[in-house]
Amino acid sequence: MAGAFLGSGPDGVRRMHGMEEWLGGDTTLRVGHTYLPGRLWADIEGRPEFLEPWARWRRAQAARLFVLNVPMLARSEAGLPDAEVRALLRRGAGGGFDGHFRTLAARLVERRLADTVLVLGWEMNGTTYTHRCAPDPGAWRRYWRRIVTVMRSVPGQRFRFDFAPSRGRDAIGWTRCYPGDDVVDVLGMDAYDQPEGMPFAEQVREPYGLQAQVDFAARHGKPVSYPEWGLFRNGDNADYMRRMLAWMARHRPLYQTISDYCPHGVWQCRDNPRSAAAYRATLHDQPPPAPPWPKQPPKATPPQATPPPGPPPPHRPPEESRPPVPPRPPRPTDRPAPPRPWWERCWEAGRHCVRLDWLRTLLT
């Protein structure tokens, strides 16, 4: 299922139709994606006036999917020191912030957004957000489990929780933050075309990269997703755009939402005309049926131990801090494969023989 991040508030909802027209008029963006502000706890509780435009969009068509990024801590981008982050994570793990997440869950259910995908504590392996994992991975995992347990306790909910690190190691290997299969429904990844000069093949095979994501998801029986992706350090890179779209065609994510603003995007950003043409050429056909969803969330079980990562790779600079609303909005499934179709055999043989019309069908 394809969509885009087009802005946090009502403007993001209104722009969905404009992007569909740009894609040719016969394409439906079935995924709406936005971010709760993280300055105050009142923001993280989901103010009704913020949620309502998205709720109307979601309710208009049964096949749509609403994706909501949820900060785990207030003062989300305040640059707090590690010692303070550690104390906040431990407080959250002990239940100190339960009421805020219970309120959010109730407000989503009241607005018939009970099946929302919640990208909780995204890019936890980096340094941008207060909800980062590195200061205390054990407390971070316990806190995630606490939030999921509280939100699942609200009657009527059918939430899915998306664990979405940034691609690569960043400040900590993201496997050290994984809180357990019973409290994770989707294994996501925010993946931008960076650092400068890194070819797509290396983005696939680097430690904690794209291949590591799909392999980890397969071992844990989770679908994959790409809540944030797009261009970045390598400019208007049409080759990256084609390869990333082909990667998603092959691995069939539950959803993918491009960050459509400069420097990452293709419709709202005029700096990337070649990449925009590649994106548009691939996504203008009719989307496929929605993937099946589990009817009930898995029952909670005791936390599972996460195997320690291998030797740490060379350090990469952390992801950039995401800007506020447009023109610079806030930054904001690997299921069993079908029986070895021709296109997969071509891919493994090193021949680029995937047909464009077939890619279009899978991606949207």
CATH class reads: Alpha Beta
β content, as a range? 5-15%
The side-by-side strand order for the widest beta sheet comes to: 1-2-3-4-5-6-8-9
Gyration radius (Cα, Å) is 19 Å
The 3D shape can be described as: globular
The unreliable regions are 285-364
CATH topology label: TIM Barrel
State the share of residues found in helices, binned by percent.
25-40%
List SSEs in N-to-C order. EHEHHEHHEHEEEHHEHEHHH
Tell me the major beta sheet. 8 strands, parallel, barrel
CATH architecture: Alpha-Beta Barrel
Spatial gap, N to C terminus: 5 Å
Number of domains: 1
CATH-assigned homologous superfamily: Glycosidases
Mean pLDDT: 85
Total helical segments: 12
Please identify the structural class as seen in this structure.
Answer: alpha/beta
In total, how many beta strands?
9
How would you characterize this protein structure?
The chain is an alpha/beta fold and 364 residues long. The chain has one domain (2-306, 333-363): Alpha-Beta Barrel (TIM Barrel). Helices cover 35% and strands 11% of the residues. Strands 1-2-3-4-5-6-8-9 form an eight-stranded parallel barrel, surrounded by four helices. α5 packs parallel to α6, α9 runs parallel beside α10 and α9 (238-251) packs across α12. It is globular and about 50 Å long. Mean pLDDT is 85; it is low at 285-364.
Annotation keywords:
364 residues; alpha/beta; eight-stranded parallel beta barrel; 12 helices; 9 strands; 35% helix; globular
SSE blueprint:
Layout: E1 2-5, H1 10-22, E2 31-35, H2 41-44, H3 48-60, E3 65-70, H4 82-93, H5 98-110, E4 117-120, H6 137-152, E5 160-163, E6 186-188, E7 191-192, H7 200-205, H8 210-220, E8 224-230, H9 238-251, E9 256-259, H10 273-283, H11 342-348, H12 356-363
Parallel strand pairs: 1-2, 1-9, 2-3, 3-4, 4-5, 5-6, 6-8, 7-8, 8-9
Helix pairs in contact: 4-6, 5-6, 9-10, 9-12
